[in-house]
Structures are given as C-alpha cells and as structure tokens.
Amino acid sequence: MQPTPKTLRFRAPIAIRGINPYILISPARAKSLKTPWRKPMPVLVRINGQPKTPWPINMMPTGNGSFYLYLANTVRHASHTKVGDTVPVELRFNTQYRNGPQHPLPPWFRTALAKNPTAKKAWQNLPPSRQKEILRYFATLKSQEAKSRNLGKLLSALSGTTTRFMARTWRSGK
C-alpha cells in the first residue's frame, strides 16, 4: 500500500506569464512534494478550497528548482480568483498520473491523416507532449461542426501552412 502523499498548504499570489495565470512554487516547496524532480511534476491542486475534487495539473519546471503552477480555467472559475489575488493553495503530488497519450486517435482524425501523407508525417514528428495535448483537446469536442473546424485547422498546420491553432502559431508543420 502506497502512503498518502503530503499535502502542502500555503498562501501565494496569482501572477501572469504571457497570457497564462500561474503561482510560482519555490524549490523548497517542490522538493517537499517530490525530490528529486526536474521534469513537469504531476500534482493535484485546489485554490480557495476549490474545485471540490482536486484538479490534476502538471507543474512546469523553471530551470532553477522552482515550478510554475499554471492555473487551468476550471480551477480559476471554480475558485472565483483572478490575477493579482493572494490565495490559499493546496498541492499534493499526483501518484495516479499516467504518462503518455491518454486519449486514442479519434477515427475521424485517423482517417484524415491516412488521406494526407504530409500531415501524417508531421503528426508523427510532433513531440509526444504536443500529440497528447491535441488528443486531449479533440476528446473534448462534441459537435460535428467543432470537430470539422478543428480538424481542418490542424491538417492545415500539419501540412505546412502558417496558421494559428490551439493558441500557438504553427510554421512548417510544427
């Protein structure tokens, strides 16, 4: 039986980096969660005691031992917080985290890749983290219109067209 991971409780300000709200986690706090750790660290987080079930997030290393805890919209909306607020934070290492793609290629995406060798090659050359991010996003799409629209944008990006997709500019298929 695995011991329950330690839960850190502290107060910290919400800052912004580019367009991303975050809380900076000090090297000492990060080490108390899991040591040694130099890659994205899977944690469960609650801000202002919300959401009721702690939300899974990967904290991103800064390079000096500290981590950025980027706050997903789900967490910010549930906690009724904004950039500039100093908030109570609950963090715990996520022992249930599974690395690698968690969502399968949707059949409609697999079929489109089979018909477009350039896009298929670019897809295979994407880092696994980017593939995972895209598959996670595709898994949230409900309507056929949203699936078609986003599939078109991704195929265009993977085919080498400079375009915006998923909050980044794609050039030469990456």
Explain what the structure shows.
Strand 8 (163-165) and strand 9 form a beta hairpin. The protein has six helices and nine strands. It folds into two domains: 10-93, AF2212/PG0164-like (Elongation Factor Tu (Ef-tu), domain 3, Beta Barrel); 107-170, no CATH class. The model has no long low-confidence stretch (mean pLDDT 91). The chain has a seven-stranded antiparallel beta sheet with strand order 1-7-4-5-6-3-2. The chain is of the alpha+beta class. The protein has helices spanning 27-33, 73-79, 107-114, 117-125, 128-140, 144-158; strands spanning 7-13, 15-17, 20-25, 41-47, 50-61, 67-70, 86-93, 163-165, 168-170. Helices cover 34% and strands 30% of the residues. The longest helix is centred in the C-terminal third of the chain and has 15 residues, at 144-158. The chain is elongated, with a radius of gyration of 18 Å.
Structural class determined from secondary elements: alpha+beta
Average per-residue pLDDT, rounded, comes to 91
What is the rounded distance between the termini? 43 Å
How many domain modules? Answer: 2
Strand order of the largest sheet: 1-7-4-5-6-3-2
Biggest β-sheet strands, sense, barrel: 7 strands, antiparallel
Number of helices: 6
Total E-strand runs: 9
CATH topology type of the largest domain: Elongation Factor Tu (Ef-tu), domain 3
Shape designation: elongated
The CATH architecture category of the largest domain equals Beta Barrel
Spell the H/E element sequence.
Answer: EEEHEEEHEHHHHEE
